[in-house]
Design goal:
This protein has 273 residues and is an all-alpha fold. The chain folds into 2 domains: 1-133, no CATH class; 146-273, no CATH class. It has helices spanning 6-29, 49-57, 59-65, 69-86, 91-111, 120-126, 135-162, 170-185, 192-200, 202-218, 229-247, 264-272. Helix 1 packs antiparallel against helix 4, helix 3 packs across helix 5 (91-111) and helix 8 runs antiparallel to helix 9. The radius of gyration is 20 Å and the shape is globular.
Length: 273
């Protein structure tokens, strides 16, 4: 395994942390930061022991019910990303960013009554930057890449083993459950005609489900070769777009995973030329 140089780490850090800062700005616009959760009371930790541990420690309650700490932590999270993008060594900023990002992720998911997965990419990719040049960074970065491929491939295997693709009305039923409220509130909305058409044509919607499953299963190839990473990058972006158009699920923060698919030697050459 070839060690990653400091120059290469600095390049990846700029892309990662500036991308993360952009996600935080979008989250601010969406009123999803700690200081914007309005002192929530109801929680849904699910069956995840990590969520239960965080609530046992009282962390989500403290960071959301404090007039002082909530905005302060939001600002530290944002500016730690900017500092980690611009400064080297960045270990302190990187660790602070990871810890606060983890707290925000757990808190947002708990009080939103939904365990989001879109911030997972930022969490996983933030860890390698705790270390400088050498094999540790390289190992953790490669680990993040394999986690990305596992995430997609396992989702495809889950659809296959559950037998969902063998029910010709499965996708139509999913769309009904997903968009019932939208179709009721916005019968003339921008996406209403698309949802209605797919629900009415179960064969087409089921074909779409099978196609998406096959795309996810194709990511199994990423465990054996990196030669197809450029193709996987385009497939990943395509999947995120289709997922938004058909399911109205925004996975924009998850696009940070494109960084593990990029050819960083070529990126460095383009920037130096």
């Amino acid at each position: 395994m070839t060690s990653t140089t400091q120059a290469q780490i600095d390049l990846r850090a700029r892309y990662f942390y500036l991308g993360s800062a952009a996600v935080l700005i979008l989250s601010f616009v969406s009123s999803a930061l700690l200081s914007q959760l309005s002192r929530p009371v109801l929680i849904d930790p699910g069956i995840d022991n990590t969520y239960w541990l965080m609530h046992w420690l009282g962390v989500p309650g403290v960071v959301t019910h404090s007039i002082l700490w909530a905005p302060v932590l939001d600002l530290i999270l944002f500016f730690s990303a900017l500092a980690a993008a611009a400064l080297s060594p960045r270990r302190t900023y990187a660790i602070v960013f990871s810890v606060l990002l983890f707290i925000w992720h757990i808190t947002l998911s708990t009080y939103s009554m939904h365990h989001y997965h879109t911030l997972v990419g930022m969490l996983v990719l933030s860890v390698p930057f705790w270390f400088g040049q050498g094999e540790r960074f390289t190992f953790l970065w490669e680990g993040a890449r394999y986690y990305f491929f596992f995430m997609f491939a396992s989702a495809g295997l889950w659809k296959l083993t559950r037998g969902a693709i063998f029910d010709p009305h499965q996708m139509a039923a999913i769309l009904k459950a997903q968009h019932a409220q939208y179709l009721y509130d916005y019968p003339d909305g921008l996406f209403a005609s698309l949802y209605t058409y797919l629900i009415s044509h179960a064969g087409l919607s089921q074909t779409l489900l099978i196609s998406m499953m096959l795309i996810q299963l194709s990511f199994l190839g990423g465990f054996f070769t990196k030669r197809l990473d450029r193709i996987y990058l385009y497939l990943f972006i395509f999947f995120v777009i289709i997922n938004y158009l058909v399911m109205h699920i925004s996975s924009l923060p998850l696009l940070i995973f494109v960084l593990v698919l990029m050819d960083w030697d070529k990126v460095a050459q383009k920037q130096s030329s």
